[in-house]
Design brief:
Blueprint (H helix, E strand, L loop, with lengths): L2 E3 L1 H7 L4 H8 L3 H8 L8 H11 L3 H4 E3 L7 H4 L6 H12 L4 E2 H11 L1
Antiparallel strand pairs: 1-2, 2-3
């Protein structure tokens, strides 16, 4: 799974238990556990907003993107990217590096 949820790490960094996070967000303990164990197939923007509000963080602190395929160069070169962005993305894919959604979001915002 290329997009991972790092909710457990952020929650633990903030010193909250699963029970406390469940109480503050209104989600069940079982739902929190399922998300933290990456057994959830999706997470809504509403859920991200609630977690970020309680944990005082950004969505990129909770979501992590990890490439699971380094041979798909055509995917890397598609889209409305500048040549420099394409080369950078291709280079990071070839070297198997990881990046967070937060860093890519900041990069996109900086270009605007």
């Amino acid at each position: 799974m290329p997009v991972l949820v790092t909710l457990k790490k952020v929650r633990e960094d903030r010193g909250l238990s699963q029970n406390e996070l469940a109480r503050r967000t209104g989600y069940s303990l079982q739902n929190i556990q399922k998300i933290e164990q990456n057994r959830s197939l999706s997470i809504t923007f509403e859920s991200l907003e609630k977690f970020c509000r309680v944990l005082q963080c950004q969505p990129g602190d909770i979501l992590y993107w990890e490439s699971d395929d380094t041979s798909d160069e055509e995917e890397v070169l598609s889209g409305d990217k500048t040549v420099g962005e394409q080369a950078s993305k291709l280079s990071s894919k070839k070297h198997g590096s990881k990046r967070t959604l937060r860093s890519s979001h900041k990069k996109d915002l900086g270009a605007a």
